[in-house]
Amino acid sequence: MTAVLAVAHDPGGASAVACTVRELRRRGMDVLALAKGPAEAQFRRLGVEHVPWAPAFSGGRRWDLLLTGTSQVDPVELDSLDVARRAGTPSVALVDYWANYRCRFLRPDRSFVLPDQIVAIDDLCRQEMEADGLPPDRIHVLGQPYFGLLVESALPARRTKEPAARILFASDAEPETQPALAILLRVLASWSRPAEILLRFHPRETERRDRESLLAGAGVPWRIDEALDPLESARAVDVVVGASSSMLIECSLSGIPTAGFAARIPAFRHHRLVVSVNDVDELEAFLRSPLASRPSADFLAQQVGAATRVADLCASVAGRSST
Question: How far is it, in rounded angstroms, from Cα 290 to Cα 278?
Fold first, then answer.
């Protein structure tokens, strides 16, 4: 039986890894999934059996494949890739989002730790990875397994009541998030009946006082969302607004009216993943007449079946290892 070790930390990568783990297990592979930090909640959300991270290689077990996410802060995947390389175990890493490609594989001392194979979301992701210095011969455009799950299970896009009365703000640690929240509050300040804001922090956001202080001084009803599954919270509101959080993509692919200020992420515009807004007037127009975006048909088609394609790659790589 093929033995696979799966390791993840950041939430986006964890969701993609979890969907792949499910498919590998469906094929009868023996998969040990190790989740660290935010990844544990993602595995629980998706109902994928896992255990808290531990240095599993130290137990002396032989693995046919290492499957990892690509975290930007915690070194657990890089450490696992290092151990796999020394043990002669081939590796596959999943890129879950269109940003920060090079730093996903870079240690603080600027040394690279590269997997044998890297999975890209789409052609744009591949092009950007190559431009950022990642080796083209290791990149496979196979889709993002969690995006594929969302597309395959999406409800019809819905139109909410006008204007929006309940807004989920998808926060993250990027610098454009605070200005985006400020613009949202400027819009609501002029309304006779202000909408309620549900604030959802990114799991990696440790500094939250700036967001909370801005909301506290705006005179708008608000509360923090801490539900295990953010999509459940998103389905209970009228619209979702944010800057460049990956949660915006989750909500949009689920048919929820979603607007973003993601000017720095070309894929958001290229694939029409969210309703793109840039200022007070554009956001107000969206909030007064919310419509779900219509992602491009090419992008949706590229994501359907992603878990199957990634599992095919994993099986092929693991098979070469065991022969």
Answer: 16
